[in-house]
Amino acid sequence: MARPVNEINAGSMADIAFLLLIFFLVTTTMDVDSGIVRRLPPPPDPTVKPADIKERNVMNVLVSSRDALMVNRVPSDISTLRRTVKEFIQNRGNRSDWPEQRIEEIEGLGNVPVSRGIVSLKNDRGTSYNMYIQVQNELAAAFAEMRNELSMEKFGIRYNQLTNNDWINAINKAIPVAISEAEPEDVGGK
Amino acid sequence: MSRFRKKGSKTLTAISTASLPDVIFMLLFFFMVTTVMRETTLIVKVKVPDATEVQKIERKSLVSYIYIGTPLRSQIYGTESRIQLNDRFATISDIQNFIIAEREARDEADRGFLTTSLKVDEQVRMGVVTDVKQELRQIGAFRINYSARKRVEQ
Fold it and tell me: Do A37 and B37 touch (CB under 8 A)?
């Protein structure tokens, strides 16, 4: 009569397979797609005259073909761009060459000053894409910071942690992302 | 009766876990097969810039991709920045037709939410990007996304 042969212990096989499984789960990047979301303006209509915007309300940001930055015709640096934009849009000191503020009543916030300022971004054909994205990023960051500050002041939590849609809309109304891209011009060639 | 009981009580074996690895392997194969690495094979070099203010794309089925960069096989195709649509090189004039084709492929209800993701190499000059953006404006594809990697701020 044959004796019952002891099986090879296959219990640890599961652990090995688990390790492999976890390895694959962790390493397969699902190719998460992220980026800076923008809305392009509709093509210019030749029959409609462009809206008049006062010069004091516009901040001209120009990125040259050498990736140099000019803010309102003054050479500038990307490290100070965020602060410059914030100061310009907020215009705390009510300077006459900085944008107007209009007190508006917004539901959930009460009376808040809404800046009429617009950042106009212009680039050259020779500007590198990286520099362009860095400038876009700094502009987006400036508006995000202003929204955060207002949200902290009014609701006590950061803007990106707001869950109440009414509050989000109120903040969006108080600080609209006013970044406009100027009509492209051929200047520096390729 | 007592005979059976004796037999059972003598060799009390543990439940065999030998099939457990097979179950796990099946899971493993499932994950290995279903994770799609990339849908289109890139023929241009794209290393997107990094930025801090990035947002995740929510509905990936409503995104069409435009790749711009220098060709990977530069000894054949040169070093000038090229546009890639689907699996081949394209020119500026192909953009509008590409967007129309992308719209046709979607449900009618979703067409308004179509986003164009620009996957552009960081060394590309803005001229070609501007041209692409002008074409997108002409065809009415206003929602765009400058693809960028998340950078953690110090």
Answer: no
